[in-house]
Amino acid sequence: MAPPPLNWPTKDPRDVLDYQIDIAPAVAGNSGDIISAVTISITPNNPGDLVLNSASVDGTSAILWLAGGQAGIVYTLTLLMATTNGRTIQRSVLLPVLELSVPPIPATAIQISAGVVLTDQNGNPVLSA
In what order do the strands lie in the sheet with 61-68? Predict the structure, then answer.
């Protein structure tokens, strides 16, 4: 039976956050073996989806700065890490993106009955001219 996938905490589409994965358990007993390079792929990968702002390594940890993403999507980030001693370690991590905050409503948003804001098909407020 396969182990459950790794998960990172949910992010809001407006967050820019750092996420970390530590491969120390995979290199236990091999002191001094650290990550020398990391390649990251994100799926899905469409316009408006999750963006990798930067990636770095610190010993046995890979640190990713992530921005954006579409609410309601669970992204899969696959990290392929090479170590100084020649090991190759691949891990996938799930990152759900959900609306965790309510953006401010623009003053020019069209409101219908009882103060309800009129929205387009993407949930954005329709603005008056």
Answer: 16-22, 61-68, 50-58
pLDDT tens-place values along the chain, 129 residues long: 777 779 999 999 999 999 999 999 999 998 899 999 999 999 999 999 999 999 999 999 999 999 999 999 999 999 999 999 999 999 999 999 999 987 778 888 888 877 788 888 777 788 987
Q: Which two structure tokens, joined as six digits, stand for 52? A: 């990798």
Q: Could you write out the three-class secondary structure of 21-65?
A: EECHHHHCCCCCCCEEEEEEEEECCCCCCEEEEEEEEECCEEEEE
Give yes or no: residues 69 and 110 share one domain: no
Quote the pTM value: 0.78
Indicate whether 75 and 127 sit together in one domain: no
- In terms of residue numbers, what domain contains 115? 103-129
